[in-house]
Design a protein that fits this description.
heterodimer; A: alpha+beta; five-stranded mixed sheet; elongated; B: 203 residues; alpha/beta; 10 helices; globular
């Protein structure tokens, strides 16, 4: 009986130490950041172990009466529970290797409890077996530890290099599909208008790629929509459209209407003003979105605009009125045109406006 | 390539005394010539425009910087302006506007491209309005309504003269507002400003 218990405990002890050792030396997850997580935890773990050992030894030396048969299994159970809790706490969504480790921890706890209940084994046997395994494994750790550490560092370095190479390959692929193709096209073109258009298109595309504010460049936000509309107008009319957007917000129906009206206003400016540059400004305000489309070109007499000029009447004014928006057109002959558009914000569509 | 383009565009209203293509050269020629205005790219082959401004400040040379860049990354632009540039224009600016901007900076005024005006509005958005701030030390942290109005007009593509007409104030007053905004942008320690600049990339 005693011998069986001793063997069980021996295995358990070995298991516990082996497990603790493995945990200390191996990365703590599928994608570890070794510098960040392992070092302080190792130090904490070792410190904690020393404290437990110290407490046990001192209470032993002072003869505070707890029989060793009780103390040692309690220590083993404590270590097991500690290991399990430690593993579970930081990341609750356990991966498979983690689940395996937790299961191992539970087995250690179970074995410890079994030993505790089995009880009547001599302290001498437990202590010597525990001490022996600790010594052996400690020796092994001294020999193998640095080697494992080096391996781990190499692995991290290797992964970093690979990420870097991947990023570079991505960028090369992107530049090839975009910039290099455009350069090739430009070299085969004589028409300065086409060249300017190609250059503008490419610049816009590259900017979007470099400075994209959101993770999803296709996201239907105010910024992206304004950008897209400016691009369309630039391409169709050989003008440059300078856009400034303050704040950002997800598009809803009334904002789509605002964007449509804005596009129409910019198109009109490009078509009729004779101006090479058009300014578009949109801002998310407290109670709505306000946009301005401005040129400094020919201008027109606002009173003389015929009712049947569909562009302004239907596409801009009608569109805005249907969503409860406001349009104001300011223009004078020879003094440019500015179209001001406003739609009120309906509660739910409100997003961070930073 | 770009520099020679700018140089030919500037014509004879501005005298170009020297050019440089990296930080060390730039610092050397600025110290040598002590020009009225330095046209400074936000990005140099060996670093950023901020480093040039800091080196020149340390050397005690009296000059003024106008930043220009193809970069539209807000934090780069804000960074060089906060280092001490008197303004920011994009490289797509017309030759005439560029000359005007250089002259404006040489006279000690601030130059805001529409893009920079938008960045500043964004940086100060959501903060308290100046009227709500009682402590005089904190007035760097907010723009007045008038300043915001001026910035919005700049963002809409208005020139100082046009803004003066719109708001029926003098051009001098518009310049004063613009300089006040620049000062706030440079001196404000409003933590949102730096957090914003670090966390956000706008175009």
């Amino acid at each position: 009986m005693v011998r069986i218990a001793a063997i069980v405990l021996g295995i358990t002890g070995t298991g516990a130490v082996l497990y603790a050792l493995g945990w200390l030396l191996l990365p703590s997850g599928p994608t570890p950041e070794p510098e960040a997580s392992v070092a302080p935890e190792v130090r904490r773990g070792v410190g904690l172990g020393l404290i437990v050992l110290g407490v046990v030894l001192s209470q032993n030396a002072l003869g505070l009466g707890l029989p060793p048969e009780v103390v040692w299994p309690v220590v083993v159970v404590g270590i097991g529970v500690g290991v399990v809790v430690w593993q579970v706490k930081p990341q609750l969504e356990a991966t498979r290797s983690e689940a395996f480790r937790i299961a191992a921890g539970i087995i250690v706890v179970g074995a410890g409890i079994t030993a505790l209940i089995a009880g009547n084994l001599s302290f001498e046997v437990v202590r010597s077996s525990f001490l022996a395994t600790t010594l052996v494994l400690g020796g092994v750790a001294l020999i193998v530890g640095p080697w494992i550490a080096v391996l781990m560092r190499e692995r991290t370095e290797e992964r970093r290099r690979r990420l870097h190479a991947d990023a570079r390959a991505d960028m090369a692929a992107h530049l090839h599909d975009s910039v290099l193709q455009t350069f090739a096209l430009i070299q085969r073109t004589d028409d300065p208008k086409v060249i300017a258009q190609l250059a503008r298109q490419q610049e816009r595309e590259l900017r979007r790629w470099l400075y994209a504010d959101s993770d999803d460049p296709a996201a239907t936000t105010l910024k992206n929509a304004v950008d897209r509309i400016a691009g369309v107008v630039e391409d169709r009319f050989d003008v440059s459209v300078e856009t400034v957007v303050v704040g950002d917000i997800a598009l809803d129906t009334s904002l789509e209407a605002l964007m449509g009206a804005m596009g129409e206003a910019a198109t009109n400016a490009a078509k009729w003003s004779g101006c090479e540059q058009i300014s578009v400004f949109a801002e998310v305000e407290d109670d709505g979105i306000r946009a301005f489309v401005r040129d400094t070109g020919a201008g027109f007499d606002t009173d003389a605009v015929a009712e049947d000029r569909l562009g302004v009447r239907e596409s801009i004014v009608g569109r805005m009125e249907r969503v409860g928006g406001i349009v104001e057109i300011r223009s004078a002959l020879g003094d440019g045109t500015e179209v001001e558009l406003f739609v009120p914000l309906v509660g739910a569509s409100r997003r961070d406006t930073v | 390539m770009f520099r020679s383009g700018v140089r030919s565009e500037l014509g004879d209203r501005v005298t170009v005394v020297a050019e440089a293509d990296d930080i060390a050269d730039a610092v050397a020629v600025i110290e040598q010539w002590s020009p009225d205005v330095v046209l400074l790219d936000v990005h140099l082959p060996s670093g950023t425009g901020r480093e040039v401004i800091e080196a020149i400040d340390a050397a005690g040379v009296d000059t003024r910087f106008l930043a220009l860049s193809v970069s539209d990354a807000a934090e780069d632009v804000i960074d060089v302006v906060r280092a001490g540039a008197r303004g920011y224009v994009t490289k797509s600016i017309s030759a005439d506007d560029l000359v005007n901007a250089i002259i404006r900076v040489s006279e000690g005024d601030a130059v805001f491209s529409p893009r920079l005006a938008g960045f500043v509005l964004d940086a100060f958005a959501g903060g308290p309005t100046a009227a709500e701030i009682e402590d005089a030390d904190d007035d760097l942290d907010a723009l007045t309504n008038r300043e915001k109005e001026v910035l919005r007009h700049l963002a809409r593509g208005y020139t100082y003269k046009e803004i003066a007409q719109q708001l029926t104030i003098s051009v001098k007053t518009v310049e004063t507002h613009a300089s006040a905004v620049l000062r706030k942008l440079q001196l404000s320690n409003r933590h949102e400003l730096s957090r914003w600049a670090a966390a956000r990339r706008i175009w």
